[in-house]
Design goal:
TIM Barrel; globular
């Protein structure tokens, strides 16, 4: 009998190849649009937990994806996206932004060297109360379950030295992924303010005013109620320039810049599939997206 994760990956593979086919018959967009990809872990694990999703893309697969995108798309820094989308002409190449949630150490040790090779800008979203935490992040069910058989870089958070290393690359901006990674629909107004404002204060104090310009909502799905309107309003008032969610879709000038949708990158996405996602062939993922529930690990 197939286990839970094997079934999930099979569904993702099926959606991926459906997306490859869909792009062949899709009409090109008449307005500028961008695909904001979201990653979490980029680590060499050596095993698959049959019950809990690791939200991981192994480094070799990550490099294949970045190489495929570099060959046909235009990488855009997330903070530059509103300006880029506002240009009147439709881009000659698909626009792609790379984002990483949770602030795992493997972003610095594994993903950053690959980003440098392809000169690909990225935004890393950090849970500020957990900077430098040496144990598993308390909201990460996979790490709590597998810390003893996975290398520490697979589950620990970046420390200040690693964040500074990312910044010195000239390719990375650091955004906020809240202060404690709480679910927005379970927070009081005071807790939401703390999540948003404290996260920005920590990053500005430690890394400078140029950081904490973008915010990533934890759990991120408005459809499941994790991002109430009040949360969005607090992010706007705190001084962030834009924010991203995990609702599925492409960004355009018509998109609320405090609720940019994103597209998840999966370990099963080969070059053809990642290119299809970048081109906006998302209809098959609209079906799988409806299967998602509130019990998300990260």
């Amino acid at each position: 009998m197939f286990d839970k994760i094997t079934i999930k990956r099979a569904i993702k593979r099926t959606a991926g190849w459906s997306a490859v086919f869909t792009q062949l018959v899709a009409s090109p967009s008449s307005i500028p649009r961008a695909c904001i990809l979201v990653y979490h872990r980029v680590a060499e694990l050596g095993f698959v937990d049959s019950q809990v999703d690791d939200w991981n893309v192994p480094p070799a697969i990550f490099e294949q994806q970045v190489a495929a995108l570099a060959a046909f798309a235009e990488f855009v820094p997330l903070l530059d996206l509103p300006r880029r989308l506002a240009l009147p002409e439709v881009p000659a190449k698909p626009l792609v932004c790379l984002t990483f949630d949770d602030g795992y150490a493997n972003f610095c040790t594994e993903a950053l060297p690959i980003l440098k090779r392809y000169k690909a800008p990225a935004t890393a979203f950090i849970v500020t109360s957990m900077i430098g935490q040496t144990g598993p992040l308390p909201f990460d069910a996979w790490s709590l379950r597998n810390r003893h058989r996975a290398p520490p870089e697979a589950w620990r958070s970046m420390n200040m030295g690693e964040l500074e290393t990312c910044l010195t690359s000239g390719l990375v901006s650091i955004g906020a992924h809240s202060h404690r990674h709480l679910k927005g629909n379970q927070c009081t107004p005071a807790q939401l303010i703390e999540e948003v404002e404290q996260a920005r204060a920590v990053l500005v104090e430690r890394l400078g005013e140029a950081q904490a310009q973008a915010y990533s909502y934890p759990y991120g799905l408005r459809r499941l109620g994790f991002v109430p309107l009040e949360y969005v309003q607090i992010v706007k008032a705190a001084g962030y320039r834009l924010a991203v969610a995990t609702d599925l879709g492409l960004a355009s000038t018509e998109t609320d810049r405090y609720f940019f949708p994103r597209v998840e990158a999966h370990a099963v996405d080969g070059p053809c599939v990642i290119r299809a996602k970048a081109r906006g062939a998302l209809a098959p993922y609209g079906i799988t997206d409806r299967l998602r529930r509130a019990k998300r690990a990260v």
